[in-house]
Design a protein that fits this description.
Layout lengths: L3 E4 H30 L8 H26 E4 L15 E6 L5 E7 L10 E3 L3 H6 L7 E6 L2 E11 L2
Parallel strand pairs: 1-2, 4-5
Antiparallel strand pairs: 3-4, 3-7, 6-7
Length: 158
């Protein structure tokens, strides 16, 4: 069973989701199944089948989260020396040398990655292109939309 790197924040979010699924969602689904059962014939009962399907999805997600937590290798970057090197969990401040656009990314594990929130998977093309580089480095990263050139303006461990 391979360990999966995760930030402390990512682990806490998973634990919160797990509590919600077990303590709030699970009882709601059980109540919905019970309610649908009281409506009679289960073969023709769409509410019952929908509730059972939702139960299956919920239990699957609970199992998935438990597995992620069991494999979690929590990396707390605030406890590491800040030497300006891009590592897992660090936040990288970049300037796109082609457009002048300034952007920042936090490098995270698979289950935390969310491009809309500027959380990028460390194994993604951008993540791989940045890890190991240092503040002030010029970096060329091959993305699905072509090569991009960045300057690493800053690296923070927050």
């Amino acid at each position: 069973m391979d360990k999966e790197p995760i930030t402390l924040n990512g682990l806490n979010k998973l634990k919160e989701e797990l509590i919600f699924l077990k303590e709030k969602k699970r009882p709601e689904i059980v109540a919905a199944i019970s309610e649908a059962r009281s409506h009679g014939d289960l073969k023709e009962n769409a509410e019952y089948h929908a509730a059972k399907e939702e139960q299956s999805h919920n239990e699957g997600r609970i199992t998935e989260i438990n597995d992620i937590i069991a494999r979690a290798n929590v990396i707390d970057v605030t406890k590491l020396n800040n030497e300006g090197k891009v590592i897992f969990g660090s936040t990288v401040y970049l300037e796109d040398l082609d457009t002048g656009e300034k952007i920042n990314y936090k490098i995270v594990g698979r289950d935390e990655a969310d491009l809309k929130q500027k959380l990028i998977f460390f194994q993604s093309p951008i993540g791989k292109g940045l890890i190991g580089k240092n503040k002030s480095d010029l970096v060329e990263i091959n993305t699905p939309s072509g090569a991009k050139n960045f300057e690493i303006k800053d690296v923070k461990y927050i």
